[in-house]
Amino acid sequence: MNAFQQQSLVLGLVCFAASLFFFGVMRSARNTWFSGVIAVNLVTLTLIFAALAVIDLGGERAEVAAALVSEMPFEAVVACLCVAQAGYLPLRTGAPPLAVVAARPRLRLLLASAGFALPIAWVLAAAFGFVWPSPAVQATAPAPLVFVVFKWILMVPAMVFAALAAILFLTAARSEALDMRLRVKNAAFAFATFCLASVALESALFAGARVWLETGTRLAVTNLLLVAETFLAIACVTAFLLGVVLRYSPGIAEPLVRHMATRWLPEQDRFDSHRWHTVVGGVTRGVVIASYRIGAAADRLCLSQSEAERAVGTVQHIAAMRDSIHDTVKVTPERARDLHMLQSEIVKDADLTSKLDKIGTPGPTSCFGTVRTASLHVELEAALDLIEPAATTRDGKNERPLWFYLAAAGAMDVGFVDGCRVREVFGNETRYGEAFEAYTEAVASLGSGPRQSQRQGDSLKRRRSIVEDETYRAH
Amino acid sequence: MALMGVEASPRPYGRLAIVTEKLRRWQKRRRFGEGASSAARGFLTQEQFQEELAVLGLSDQPFGPREYADALGRHVGVTISIDVVPDAEHPLLSRELARRGITGETRYRADLARAHIIVPGSLPPLALNFTLLHELGHLAAGDLFIDPHHSGPQPARTSALPTFEVLNRSRLAHGLPFARALDREHEANLRAGYAFVAGCLGSENPYAQRMYDIL
After folding, report:
1. Is the same domain home to A194 and A298?
2. Which of A243, A360, A361 sits opposite B215 (nearest CB)?
3. Which residues of A are less than 8 Å from B203 in CB distance?
4. A-chain residues near B186 (CB < 8 A)
5. pLDDT confidence band for A281 (50 / 70 / 90)
6. pLDDT, tens digit, for every residue of A43-89?
7. pLDDT band at A151 (very low <50, low <70, confident <90, very high)
8. How far is B162 from chain A, CA to nearest CA, in Å?
């Protein structure tokens, strides 16, 4: 067995051990496009090195062919890495490029060119090697100058692209805003890709040593380089495996984010815009009166500011739905119910809603207050319950917070909901009576004339003139 | 409902440029006619939007409409200003806009390279942010750079939606603006939704993180 066969045997065993480990431990746990590339590569390399260790090659052209075949998986991995960084790998269609590449179109193009440049380099080296054959796989024997040209055509482009990929992974690993696990993952890939570049450099130096060094020095240097190649191969495979095995699961799931962006937000925007049209535009009369009276009643009941806002918000939601009840393209109770379901998905994640609520607006705070996703959800639910009150809506548990009953009183007062049905469902609750009493007292104290109590068997007086709205707006 | 106003520059081309432009359109119309609609495309995906954010330098950081407008303006070479009309100072204007259901308006001056977005401050905060991002989405897509003298979209025989060509100007989006106004509005809504979520989540956005987890 000559030195090249020995080296092939060592590398074949390294690849075989890595293949066993990969298929036994990792493949089942981590299945990405790159784990597939690694698997195919490890098996191919094992077979190639095993064949080269067994076969005693005769003739320089056969040696050139063997060298070309053994370098093919290496070139394929470098090309895949670069094209994946550019975001153009067919194996991962639609996937984005590496973040540090996305903003640099020329760099992206350069990386993508690896997909053509490396195969072209391989074909050029093959053509050159077959026209001017050389002892390509003899480990320590002296070689003619054409061997350096053959080897450098093959290795220098791969070295450049691998070094570029390593730098980019390192840049990604240095991003401070990133989760530590993702940073370590990118650092591992940077190290592995750096090892690939070093293997290519070592291979180019090896060719130079065989051509230009004297016998004694050549033997020492080439043996040293072969050992270095083995260690680099082990380090490279280990770092790649480490990078792949480091699983990163985002704190907020992608489907939830997509759901928010494409369904909930446009629908919430439609509803909020319509609520604004109804309330600020004064399209549905009575909102301002009800809000003013609810505020006064909330003071009597010693409700907090947020509770009073919820009651007012509920009345606004009902107004928005009432306004477009006959307009199917706007906000119908059916669409509101759909929106409520969409909101339910979002408010389940407390971390996510807290982030949404931190959003500021580029201007003075509107009369609708700040973003409160959970409140919007609760208010919409209350509005839906009041529009179509049913004992089954909350599994028979009809006892609600005081603000809910206050909203019910306000909505009944201005004729937004069917008072009889609301009383039928909620009338027996203690808090309902309490809220209704406070509301009636607030109405009386605000000087809108005497009003009949529900307990006297009649509904509240409904005065929904725009003139009255304007009077309250002036207050 | 949001309005867009485009005020084109009186002389955007020289004579030669007009002839070249006409030839280009004629060629494109021929391609459409043959069913080889290279300009036709589907709607923007969240991954593609994340790439746009990376180009703007906002991919893994929290941002609001103003930051997005600044970064976008720098990229497309347009000065974008945002005016939130305070409800307290202009209650009648606010009320009138609400009555008409106009949530926002963009005025674009091609000759001055300026875009001015106006929104009423009385809008609920979520709708206000969404409206601003929607208007900025039109700018990012290049919808306001559509050539007003274009003869109209040609029917594309592909399943993808037909698009308009735009003047040779720096744009953020990879694809051309859609020919149908409805499609342009839908994509602006998509962009607003993506931007809203990306701005809220910052580095915790899973789509931003995916750009660091490519293998």
Report:
1. no
2. A243
3. 177-179
4. none
5. confident
6. 898 999 899 888 887 788 888 998 899 889 889 999 999 998 998 87
7. very high
8. 21
Looking at residue B102, what is its pLDDT? Answer: 80
Testing the interface with A: which of B59, B60, B129, B215 to mutate, by most A Cβ within 10 A?
B215
A360 contact residues in B (CB cutoff 8 A): 64
- Give the A window 375-414 contacts with B, CB below 8 Å: 376
Q: Is residue A379 part of a domain?
A: yes
The three-class DSSP label of residue B80 is: strand
Asked if residues B143 and B135 have their Cβ atoms less than 8 Å apart, the reply is no
* Cβ A337 vs Cβ A326: under 8 Å: no
Domain boundary among A200, A221, A245: A245
Q: A260 and A165 share a domain?
A: no
Inter-residue contact A32 to B215 (CB < 8 Å): yes
Residues 303-322, chain A, touching B (beta carbon < 8 A): none
> Which class for B169: exposed (0-12), middle (13-18), buried (19 or more C-beta within 10 A)?
middle
Maximum mean pLDDT: which of A145-154, A288-297, A356-365:
A145-154
Q: Are the C-beta atoms of residues B183 and B161 closer than 8 Å to each other?
A: yes
- The mean pLDDT value for A88-104 works out to 80
The verdict on residue A459 lying in a domain is yes
> Domain residues for A30?
3-245
Residues of A in contact with B127 (CB under 8 A): 268-269, 272-273, 276
Q: Is there a domain that residue A363 lies in? A: no
d(CA A290, CA A406): 10
Helix-helix angle A180-212:A215-245, to 10 degrees:
160
DSSP letters, A237-250, are HHHHHHHHHS----
CB-nearest partner of A96 from B51, B124, B127: B51
CATH code of residue A234: 1.20.1070
Q: What is the pTM of this model?
A: 0.79
B201/A contact by beta carbon, under 8 A: yes
Give the pLDDT confidence of B106-124 residue by residue, as tens digits: 888 888 889 999 888 888 8
Mean pLDDT of A377-393: 74
